[in-house]
Each structure stands twice: as C-alpha cells, then as structure tokens.
C-alpha cells in the first residue's frame, strides 16, 4: 500500500524552535541529514510515517500536533474574512488552510485581534445607543452587511407605506375576494399573466418555499408551508406584478447604498404588500378596533396566521386613520433577533429588546400560549408586552421543528383599548426590565448576563452579590 505523505514543515519548525534546537541537532537526533530536514521544514519533502513516529518518540510530542490539519484555525480565519470589511478579500477554503498551516501563530493572533475588534465594535454600539438615549448625536458607525443596512433603515422609520396600502386596497376590491383570497388570486394570475400556481411535494422542492419558472410560467409553492404561508407567497408574487411601480417608488425613498441592499429591501416591501393585500388597511383597522386587537380573533377573521396578523398591527399608522402604535420583535431559541418592526420605528432608545427577563424568552417553555406582561423601563416608561411561539414550515419524521417566538408591544397607556388589558387589570405584576444588560444599571438583577459599560465591576473578596456581574 502506498505510504501516506504528510507535509507539515511549519509544525516541525515550531517544535524545533520551541525546544531551542538547531536544524543540525534535530537532524542528528532523527538520523537524517540537515539538508533533508531543511527541505521538510520548507514543505519540499513529506514527513514519512517512520519519521513521524521517530519525532514522537524522540521529542515526546503528540502525533496529532504534527499531523493535524489547520481545520480549527481555518474556521477562525473564515470568521475573520466573513466580515463585511474583508468580504472582497475572502480567500478560498484551501487558501485559509494554507495560511493556518504555514503560520499558525500569526493566524491565531489574527483571530484574537479580530475578536477584540468585534468586542470593541459592540461596546461602541452600546455607547452610541446610550448617548443617543441621552440626546447626544453620534456619528459612530461601522461597515454593515446589506441585510443589516436594510433592517436598520426599515426600523428607523414608521412601518407604513401609504402608496402600497392604497394600491393593495384597490387591487383587493378589483379581485372581489369576498370570503377567500386564494382562488381569486390564482385566477387573476392565470388570466392576466398566464401563470399557473402549483403546490409541489417536499422531495421536489427540498430547500425552497417558492419558485417561479419563467419558461413554463408556473409558480411552485412548497407543501411544507401552512395554508397561510402559501397564501402569503402567492400574494407576494401577485403584488410584484400588480403594483410594481408603487413598490419601486417606496424602494427609491429608502436611499439604500448598494444593489444587494436594494434587492433585499424589494423583497421586504413585497412581503409588506402581501400582508396589505391579505388584510386591506381600512377593513383590518376597523376589525382590529372592534375586536380590541385580539390577535387570535383577527387571524381567524382574515384567514391569516398569528404572525401575519401581529406584523400587520405594526402598520396601522395612516394619517387620520391610525391604530395603536404596536412594535414587534421575533427571535429564535438562541435569542438571535430575526425581525423587528414598529409603527413609529422600533423604540430602540427606550425598549431595546435585549433583556433576558422578557416574556418572549419564556414562551419556548410554553409553546402556543400567549403570555402577557407589563414591563417597566429604568426611565419610567411602561409597556404592554404580548408574546407567543411560532412554528415554522411542516417537517418530516426526524426533522426538527423550527420554532421562533414573537413579541408584540405597545405603550401601557393603551392597554385598556386591548383585550390584553384584562390581564393587566387581573394583577399581572410590573416586570422591571432594561434595554440590554450592557446598558442597564438595575442592581441585584438575577438575570444579568453582562456588566454595564457605564459602571466598573464591584469585585470584592469579602462580599459577593447575587449576580456574577455586580457593579459599583
């Protein structure tokens, strides 16, 4: 059998330097010539299995230390080069391995430096939010991914696009949807554009929700999706056809910096348009007020999902015909924030949504149940918070369900206008929360995950508090 060849010159050199040996001394101990060792260290000759065993026996080194590829270090370097600042310089996987192999210490230093840079960037962001909350303008900014730019742009403005809502209302009336939108939409797409909608099984669309085939003029929808999600996908495609001009007009108004950001924003606006078509503004507002913003009743009345009805609540800000200013936030099990929106812009300065005590985190232990809280911020602002889990696409046997959670909130002053105010009247205790641990100065918080950036840690050999991050 052919002998495996291992090129590990930089690792052999690192072992030799760590032992303060010359090439001559090491070559003598290994019973090879200094010139041959020199070629090995320059990766011009391989390490044979016999020589590998000799190295391990003579210098008592771990074979894995010599043989191991730079996979772990390459993973760290991949994280570095995935940063938007270096996106144009991203080497291929093989090049990353070569860097890790040839200069492991330098590669490790690069990874450490990058993580320190990210930590400082996070602290600067926290400080910028703190200054903004106190009324100080700051120009602190960093390189952003297109998705981050779109999210920040949409979150800073009211989640209401008047031209799209008006176009959706006109289109809905023209369809004469009556009790259901799905059949009229399919008929319109076939009659006006020659597009036939088909639902495909999982094996035909294993990784896609929706796919439009321009050659056969067919719109394929995955059977993984619930009926509500299928309707949204069809409504989204129809919106791009029926009121493309209104969507493009709103897109231009966002003043995004690049083509990728514009593409993402166009998708988000089409999603907004789909909700506007499924839940026409005037009718949805009237029903929301009549039902006192009961999300369960609203979703049944309009044939939509809980998540769709919740997001639609954040858009009711038409001048002269507005509803309560709701905001929403969606997270996954790990606490990653997937989506944020608010009728008057997500209230970052007062409600950051990063507090571990929020009821949105508790919903994962009580799936499909609605949790209601009153939350009190350090500045005295109080919010009504409603949270519930959401199930993702249908899964097959042995596939893990994708479950997220959504939080819907508004100023507590409007609690009595909602059915959820009953829970407040029923004695729900006020929950003291903060914007995020790094910006919160509440003493003795059992849920604190990080120290505040505004205070030094209160380390004391004689006294310890309830939190590992007690501060002075």
TrEMBL record:
<keyword id="KW-0805">Transcription regulation</keyword>
<dbReference type="Pfam" id="PF01381">
    <property type="entry name" value="HTH_3"/>
</dbReference>
<dbReference type="Pfam" id="PF06114">
    <property type="entry name" value="Peptidase_M78"/>
</dbReference>
<dbReference type="InterPro" id="IPR001387">
    <property type="entry name" value="Cro/C1-type_HTH"/>
</dbReference>
<dbReference type="GO" id="GO:0005829">
    <property type="term" value="C:cytosol"/>
</dbReference>
<keyword id="KW-0238">DNA-binding</keyword>
<dbReference type="InterPro" id="IPR026281">
    <property type="entry name" value="HTH_RamB"/>
</dbReference>
<dbReference type="GO" id="GO:0003700">
    <property type="term" value="F:DNA-binding transcription factor activity"/>
</dbReference>
<protein>
    <recommendedName>
        <fullName>HTH cro/C1-type domain-containing protein</fullName>
    </recommendedName>
</protein>
<dbReference type="InterPro" id="IPR050807">
    <property type="entry name" value="TransReg_Diox_bact_type"/>
</dbReference>
<comment type="similarity">
    <text>Belongs to the short-chain fatty acyl-CoA assimilation regulator (ScfR) family.</text>
</comment>
<dbReference type="GO" id="GO:0003677">
    <property type="term" value="F:DNA binding"/>
</dbReference>
<dbReference type="InterPro" id="IPR010359">
    <property type="entry name" value="IrrE_HExxH"/>
</dbReference>
<dbReference type="InterPro" id="IPR018653">
    <property type="entry name" value="ScfR_C"/>
</dbReference>
<feature type="domain" description="HTH cro/C1-type">
    <location>
        <begin position="12"/>
        <end position="66"/>
    </location>
</feature>
<dbReference type="Pfam" id="PF09856">
    <property type="entry name" value="ScfRs"/>
</dbReference>
<keyword id="KW-0804">Transcription</keyword>
<dbReference type="InterPro" id="IPR010982">
    <property type="entry name" value="Lambda_DNA-bd_dom_sf"/>
</dbReference>
